[in-house]
Predict the structure.
Amino acid sequence: MPNSDDIALIGWSASPMVRSTDKTEAQMLLEVITGAVDDAGITRREVDFTCAGSCDYVAGQAFSFVQNIDALGAWPPKRDSHVEMDGAWALYEAWIRLQLGDIDIALAMGSGRSSTADPSLIYPMEMDPYYLAPLGTDAASLAALQARALIDAGKVTERQMAEVAARCRHDAVGDPHAQVTGEFGIDALLAEDYVRSPLRRHDLPPITDGACAVVIARADKARELCEHPVWITGFAHSSELHYPGMRDLTSSPSTTLAGKAAGLEEGPVEVAELQSAFTHEEPVLVEALGLGADVAVNPSGGPLAANPIMATGLVRISEAAGQIRDHGKHRTLAHSTSGPCLQQNLVCILEGDTK
Amino acid sequence: MVQAVQSTIQFPYKRSLGPVVGAFMTALTDRRIIGIRSGDRVIVPPLEWNPDTGDELAHDFVDVGPAGTVVSWSWVARPTVQHPLDHPFAFALVQLDGADTTLLHAVDAGSIDAMSTGMRVAPRWRAARIGHITDIEAFVPGEEPVMPAGDGGPAEEPVTMMDYNASITYSLPVTPNALRAEQANAEGRFLGLRCPECGRTYTGGKGYCPVDALELTTEHELDLPQHGTVTNYTIITPVQYPGQTETDPFARVHVWLDDTDVILGYQPLLDTPNDDVRIGMRVAAVWASEAEKADLAATAEGSLLGWMPTGEPDDDDPSLVNRIQ
């Protein structure tokens, strides 16, 4: 049973997930912040701390996060922070901040307009500037090296990867937030050309514009405001070496560590929302977290259905929370990742009020 | 159809290399690939710290390769402009002979059919090497390094710096509010937006009141005054950087538009010696003539040329200086 120091999700909202939006990043945030505070039954005035996750290179503007503050209604001034990370890490900072105990409500957000430019040209600038960036190492090329390592190690096949894509697209059917949905035959998928061998188009996430916001509160406030708070019972992240050539790409020890630190082993989870943006990453993460066949992985369709860079991980957390509040689940897991080939991994464990 | 503005941003980074990356880059100019000892392992490319413990590594460098084995690879059928080759190639993790880690680089194999895990590759060197990861143009199948004709030889001094240049073309949406503000500007007007909640007035183009987080639309529009007061200023001594066209010190002033909350920051002040710029000066907007607009079309300034002193008495309110936002 949560005690007064515990922290819960009390409201959240995600934008439509589209290939190209006509809204600015601040306008997308305006919408999801309004959605999240409405969902929590509060106004912006009651939010004591805000933290955003976004990326200037993606936005194409230096200090783009300063403009995004316009979406917060930050007057009188609010305590505000920003991470150049997925919004899942913004939520992590907000969760840490509430533990100080002097304020009750925080809002975390993540936003990205990947349609602003070619993501395969932006990504290399975020890599090691000496050894990787000058080679133009885009996300799909790096992911493909990991996929090949897994295939060579006998841990996954191209057919299994296609099955992951087909399942995610199927599960996303009817989800208003999904961008890529539908029924796809495995043989037809495998007949497609490679984008970066051994990855075909279906192994890659879509390019998505989108945003997400989540409101969290300390226990007493959460109970006052919310009939069914979703408790954060564990939250941790862990990182490995940046350079892919210095890691074993067939496993993800930092995911295992983060899961342990978040208390994953203390009980079963029913659903896992994983930021597996490439099909082959799903089996790596499932193995690293020790998830059994009874755990539903990415029932939302996951990042293969919609991948709003800088918000994809925060969406995983809101989806995992929705499984508890809206779909009767008791304990769920959300995962986020950052860096090439699953370099850094975050695990958030969520629980409902009753067992 | 949403309007978008395209802009190409250059990212010209100049980075210092330090004692370890610098040694690696210097060795490349001598057609050598070096790793660094870390415990009983040899790490390539070299790091400054032991990846297992975080301890600083002694600068115990080891020559590796030049040939190695492909441990993983991906075929790039359509290279990007940032990729090292302009025709189809493979990215590969290459375990160089004598190394315990793999180097990520390109393999120029001609065809995906020539690629396989476990294949042997060797570097093809560039003739003119500057101490950069692309001094290795690519790896090629086989055991023997490919030496260039007209070899430029090794660097005479240790390499300590490297350049990194990226160029990204962004396309950002122009909102309807911004379009109307631009149109008003072209007509010699300042378009404002008044928040129905707090009554604050903003210059046109803003999509929302940042205080109340309310969307602002055409129904909140109003024309703003063309006169104002200088609340603050700075005299800028230009340093030369790409895009800087000024050569002599020049003034930029903050103008508070009459009867509004609007401060226009960093505005040009016209026909005024720098020594005459004062807080409290009364100024009026000066717009480009039709002829001048043609010249301005390529700039982002719009058709506002700047501000001209009106000759009215100064406003001597001492708190003016605080109004910069």
Observations:
- The radius of gyration of chain A is 19 Å.
